[in-house]
């Protein structure tokens, strides 16, 4: 009697287990977030490759990309299912993408704030302090500083005791605002940033001294009220930025997802590969890996995922 076909892709199961090891779902902010396996697609044997597509947002273009590539699973940093669904219809563009992916057998996993808690904000802190190759390629050493978590997680998972949301960086020696801007544009590979400074500063704004930074990826509302010199985030509202500069602080924003995308393309991709390999090996030892299924796999970042906003100069004729 032939062996029964698994209901769920063995490779997708290995990917999900790997993500849960690296970014435990218990660390996500359950007060508002929706993380985990959001779409567990039926397994279509020999229909898809053992491949993962990383993206910040699961748009129609990204869904098309995954289908054309034949990926088994999409890891979408932002959850495509964020609020309770009362129906699944073709009229809603996000639901349409989910239905198409399910039809193709492509699953969707979202880690979101679990990544914020144990990786992404630490990586942003590395950038502003020159603690990695992205922050300042020409830097000879890390700027001396101390770090702390803005909102620590109570009862964190074993091995992740220092996890939490947001970071505060305090420099031993004040840094020039212009130097920090250079580190961020270099580290995030961006041509420009949004910068706000107190209106009392009219001379060379790049020379403003910064002794402390409050930072978080994405939306920076959690930074409001912090006793720091600079707020660094993806986005702040007009009134939040005004309130900050009225208090004598500076603000740097990048557009929401520009604080997140390169982390997926570099750090997450590099961490995920060996962890998936471990999970496949464990599955083989347990006898749950499908006989004849290749152990080879690949992980790629989406080529079409990007922030919905672009900076467009008036002299550009085409863009």
Automatic annotation (TrEMBL):
Entry GO terms, CC: mitochondrion
Organism (species): Hyaloscypha bicolor E
Protein name: NGG1p interacting factor 3
Keywords: Metal-binding
Residues annotated for a divalent metal cation binding in this entry: 78, 116, 256, 260
Pfam family, one: DUF34_NIF3
NCBIfam families, per database record: YbgI_SA1388 (TIGR00486)
GO MF terms, alphabetically ordered: metal ion binding
Highest taxon of source: Eukaryota
Family: Belongs to the GTP cyclohydrolase I type 2/NIF3 family.
InterPro entries with a match to the protein in the record: DUF34/NIF3 (IPR002678), DUF34/NIF3_sf (IPR036069)
């Amino acid at each position: 009697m032939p062996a029964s076909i698994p209901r769920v892709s063995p490779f997708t199961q290995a990917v999900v287990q790997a993500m849960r090891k690296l970014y435990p779902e218990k660390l996500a902010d359950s007060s508002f977030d929706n993380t985990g396996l959001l779409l567990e697609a039926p397994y279509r044997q020999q229909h898809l490759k053992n491949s993962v597509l990383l993206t910040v947002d699961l748009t129609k273009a990204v869904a098309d990309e995954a289908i054309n590539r034949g990926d088994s699973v999409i890891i979408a940093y932002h959850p495509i299912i964020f609020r309770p669904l009362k129906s699944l219809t073709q009229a809603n563009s996000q639901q349409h993408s989910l239905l198409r992916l399910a039809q193709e057998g492509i699953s969707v996993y979202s880690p979101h704030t679990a990544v914020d808690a144990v990786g992404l904000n630490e990586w942003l802190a590395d950038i502003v302090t020159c603690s990695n190759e992205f922050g300042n390629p020409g830097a000879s050493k890390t700027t001396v500083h101390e770090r702390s978590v803005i909102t620590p997680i109570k009862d964190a998972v074993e091995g992740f005791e220092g996890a939490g949301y947001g970071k505060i960086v305090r420099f031993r020696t004040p840094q020039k605002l212009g130097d920090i801007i250079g580190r961020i544009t270099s580290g995030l590979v961006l041509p420009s940033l949004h910068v706000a400074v107190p209106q009392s500063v009219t001379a060379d704004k790049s020379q403003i001294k910064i002794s402390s930074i409050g930072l978080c990826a994405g939306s920076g509302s959690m930074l409001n009220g912090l006793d720091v010199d600079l707020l660094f985030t993806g986005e702040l509202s007009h009134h939040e930025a005004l309130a900050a500069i009225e208090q004598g602080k500076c603000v740097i924003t990048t557009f929401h997802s520009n604080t997140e995308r390169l982390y997926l393309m570099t750090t997450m991709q590099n961490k995920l590969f060996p962890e998936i390999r471990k999970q496949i090996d464990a599955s083989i030892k347990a006898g749950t890996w499908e006989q004849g299924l290749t152990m080879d796999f690949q992980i790629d970042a989406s080529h079409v995922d990007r922030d919905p906003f672009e900076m467009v100069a008036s002299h550009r004729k085409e863009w």
